[in-house]
Design a protein that fits this description.
Layout (H helix, E strand, L loop, with lengths): L1 E3 L2 H10 L15 E5 L14 E7 L1 E7 L5 E8 L2 E3 L1 H4 L8 E4 L3 E7 H9 L2 H27 L2 H12 L4 E2 L3 H7 L4 H13 L3 E4 L2 E4 L2 H9 L4
Antiparallel strand pairs: 1-2, 2-8, 3-6, 3-8, 4-5, 4-7, 9-11, 10-11
């Protein structure tokens, strides 16, 4: 992780990403810029989340590890979005694991100094309420669509959001659990995409060769 507090750099990035429409100007002096490289961790799982992040560039994977050592994929976070808001609201005192799927840039506010300001910032709270409502709606719609559409549609949407730079390489067991499908059915559909030329296997990775086909399947689920 690289941290920048250089005033000109911070102010320029805040202006580009319309900071004043997300937070009140009183928070601007506390902003840091955190950048992460692909595969780097944004949080220490099981530890308090020390920052509220507003991710302005990149994509991350959020997961949790159970006591038996098994890891469960929770969601994908894609800019622009908040990370660490559950810790701020004290809903989750300890962070889940967050890993960069590609290079990430975040506007960061240290909770140690900004928590009270954030919880009394009406601009931020209005934005946060809208985003949390959208997350809840999207999750309920995703659950409903899992019963209404064939698995290949949901898998196509999953590949599009989880692939990084045209490469898909998620663990089959995690994906099967996340999409609520049998491991066997997942492998069957994956092989079907390879046979159709949609994906090309290269070592442990799958190269997306026909994203238009995947987008067509995904878009069939969009109302």
């Amino acid at each position: 992780m690289l941290i920048s507090t250089q005033k000109n750099h911070v102010e320029r990035l805040c202006e580009i990403h319309h900071f004043n429409t997300i937070f009140s100007k009183e928070l601007l002096p506390y902003v840091e810029i955190h950048t992460f490289q692909k595969k780097e961790s944004l949080s220490q799982e099981g530890e308090p989340f020390p920052y509220l992040y507003y991710m302005v560039k990149g994509k991350a994977k959020v997961y949790m590890t159970h006591k038996n050592g098994q890891r469960t994929l929770v969601l994908f976070a894609e800019a622009p979005c908040f990370l660490g808001e559950m810790s701020l609201l004290e809903v989750e005192p300890f962070a889940k694991g967050v890993t960069a799927m590609e290079d990430i840039t975040c506007l960061a506010l240290p909770l140690a100094t900004c928590k009270s300001l954030l919880l009394n910032d009406t601009i931020f709270l209005r934005n946060l309420s809208r985003i949390l409502a959208e997350k809840a709606r999207n999750r309920s719609e995703t659950l409903a669509k899992s019963y209404a559409y064939p698995f290949e549609n949901r898998f196509a949407a999953f590949i599009l959001i989880s692939a990084s730079e045209g490469v898909y390489n998620e663990m089959h067991t995690e994906v099967a659990e996340f999409l609520n499908v049998s491991y066997r059915h997942l492998l069957f559909t994956l092989q079907d995409f390879v046979v159709k030329g949609v994906l090309e296997k290269e070592g442990r990775n799958y190269i997306v060769k026909n994203d238009a086909f995947l987008k067509q399947l995904r878009d069939e689920m969009i109302d």
